[in-house]
Amino acid sequence: MEDHIIEMRNITKRFPGIVALDGVTVQIRKGEIYAILGENGAGKSTLMSILFGMVEPDEGEIYIRGRKERISSPNYATELNIGMVHQHFKLVSNYTVTENIILGREPKHRLLGVFPAVDMKKAEAEVAELSRRYGLEVDPKAVISGVNVSARQRVEILKMLYREAEILIFDEPTAVLTPQEIEALLEIIRMLRDGGKTIILITHKLEEIRQVADRCAILRRGRLIGVREVASTDAEEMANLMVGREVSFHTEKKKAEFGKTVLQVKGLTVLNEDKFPVVKGVSFAIRSGEIFAIAGVSGNGQVEIAHAIAGLMKESEGDILLNGESLLSKDVRERIEAGIAYIPEDRQEMGLILDFKLKDDLALKKYYRHPFAERKILKHKTFEEYGSKLIDRYDIRCANSTETLVRAMSGGNQQKAIVGREIEQDASLTIFVQPTRGLDIGAIERIHAQIVEERDRGRAVLLISLELDEIMDLADTIAVIYNGEIGKIAPAEEFTTQEVGAYMMGIGKGQEGGKHEKAQ
Amino acid sequence: MKKRNETVLVAVIAVILGLLAGAVMMLILKKNPLSAYYNLLQGSGLAPKGKYAGGKSMFSDFSSYIDFLTPMLFAALAVAVALKAGLFNIGISGQMLTGAFLATVLVGYGNLPAVLAKPLVILIAAAGGGVVGIIIGFLKSRFNISEVVSSIMLNYIASYIISFFINTRYVDPVSRQSKEIGQASRLTLHQVLVGGFRYDFALGFILAIIAILIVRFIFDRTVLGYELKAVGANREAARYAGIRVNRSILLSMGLSGLLGGLAGATYFLGYTASIQPKVLPSTGFDAIAVCLVGGSSPVGIFFASFFLEIIEKGSTYMSSQAGLEAEIASVIMGLILLTSACSSFILAKVSRRRVEGRGSK
């Protein structure tokens, strides 16, 4: 029997409408770097949230150092010497480095022998000592808002070490770092392991795993697909396991008949709030009767492309033409009226107003027009009738028909409402972003069929998805985006899943093989 | 329909709990709460007093109660209109002052006949308050400056600038307030003798009822109302739907300020006839409480104002009769607000649990 510091047995966690984890078992040895690999939504973060006490599993047992534990809160996890660096740092930005690190565990002394107070001198000395011992360079007196992202991450790591964590969980730690900073972080992780710590690394980047991890568990759609010794496997196998070689379901579709060009995007550059380019000079065109898919790992600029087309984000350079007419001077409503339907990624924050009744949400893009309003006065009867029609046509399940509060509906039915509403726009271009995220298999099939129907009706479809299966299954043309740039555009038949996967990771065909040989 | 019932229930429970808590406090002070509460009704002309001074009756008390109530109706509506779009207008006091001061100076001290002066007062006050509201809305939509901060600051700016002009140019040396306006421009027909009794006829009250109906119509039946609700409930989704969010913010703050200006007109050119320098009218703040108790619906606001203002109006009489300090009324108001905030919280908890229960099935 091996010495496992952590054992999570048969962990199952359900959220309304989806199974996030389905009987997952992982066993982690003391002193190893254990990577958890998977696509977005595969259940990696949920699994670690359970280990860190933020989420309680519906089923399954957790053993820490051989003892069965019920980890009910992050505080208890800390007591068990488990620490976690979250993807979004949890630091108080107007506190100093030291204050952040000691927060909740402040060394105390008594001023004038009476008044209890935080012993800041002692704390700073301790932080400086920790920082020296682990080579994590920070200025104990610097204020968090004044230090850069990688220093903030070091503060998060020190925070764990200050709490005497032995098991360190890193949730996508490299997502926010530059390549040089990534190198440095991986070095730190290696050193922590050599110092006797156990490391769990959540990531979807194969390269990092190959560099530092000892073993790797692969999750897909909430299930554990396999555990591999990193030394005896290669990137290709891991990629296959992560993405899934076999396409799990297939949508019936006839051969595409392309018509005239509907959407043309020319040299589009989009800046984010920090004036940083997230879409860099992207060009593509979509014809009527075509499903054009953009594949890519989350956060590579694909959502921003959709926002820019819809007018929700300002394009800083380039041009967008719909049916030959430039959209640049048009605002959101004018673009909707020009013929753009948009199913956004975030259905609850953007696609719907949760505190509206279903009939009001279904009319969200038509409420001001005939027959929903005459001379700025709403016609409630039209809302009612239109709502009932869409509820029937799109099989939206809701307790009180058109009067149902959208918040009270399940995620799948909320999405049906959005998809129905947008299809009814009769637009020339329909944008689907992550249309099936978090939905069960039945709902997914239905939406896939609807996407194909849209195409067959002669509309142009822009599909943006993180699910490679979905893209391979539906797309007529695939563009792969990495770091705001489109790596390759080609008809779907010319791509293999593995090739798309390689472009998604920023390693084109051929390059990956090269690296792989080097590693051996 | 169900939601409306729940809102009413919350308000009623909150008021009962607040009154009970007030009663406990009076018992501690060794006073009879029942008679004290009865005094409140008597003071507002809703129950007969033991004896009346010459020319007074229960109905004349009631007429002055309606006069007192009118500014609150406008002020609470002003809160509701901003709240619909997700904005918190704490600047109603400043909007009241601005509107009222402009109307006082431009019309109140002139010699226009009543038929011209009264409509003009209403228009000028509405415009003055509206402009202040639009400034707040502009700062919010253009520079994303919190409307809470800017409206509080504008309260002080308005109050001190107006105080400066009152003290230097319009002060009445005896009362230390602005000089009284002429009766022609006053929106309340003050102490009118009818059948041997004196009444205050608040013309603004009719306007307030019309305003309630108009706001209700805007909320429920117009494109504007739909847009304000969308912006208030989810700004991102509103933008996504093509609603011009900034325009909605400007409009709702302008409308809110306009109603604030009308509250000012009916207060300073109706209920009173002069402005006290350096004092922000408490109506502007109490209106927030009234609006919340009224579930920020126009009709709810009518009932909430009607009920809560009894406590304010009757407090003087209660104080003289029961020997309780008049400030007790403010304490009871505070307690009601506290309990109503708590009960909305409890209701939200309960309904969320219900929703989750349904969702997981």
Q: What tags apply to this protein structure?
A:
heterodimer; A: 520 residues; alpha/beta; 6-stranded mixed β-sheet; globular; B: 361 residues; ABC transporter involved in vitamin B12 uptake, BtuC; 13 helices; disordered C terminus
Just give the CATH class of chain B: Mainly Alpha
User: How many strand elements of chain A?
Assistant: 24
Using the alpha-carbon principal axes, give the shape of chain A: globular
Strand order of the largest sheet of chain A: 6-9-10-3-11-12
Question: In this structure, how is the largest beta sheet of chain A organized?
Answer: 6 strands, mixed
Give the structural class of chain B.
mainly alpha
* Shape estimate of chain B: globular
State the helicity of chain B in percent bands.
Answer: over 70%
Average pLDDT level of chain B: 90
CA-to-CA gap between the ends of chain B? 25 Å
Largest contact between chains: A-B, 36 and 25 residues
Q: In terms of quaternary structure, what is this?
A: heterodimer
Q: Total strand count of chain B, please? A: 2
For the CA atoms, what is the radius of gyration of chain A? 26 Å
Strand order of the largest sheet of chain B: 1-2
How many helices of chain A in DSSP terms?
Answer: 18
Given the helix and strand composition of chain A, which structural class is it?
Answer: alpha/beta
- State Rg of chain B: 21 Å
Biggest sheet character of chain B = 2 strands, antiparallel
Low-confidence stretches of chain B: 355-361
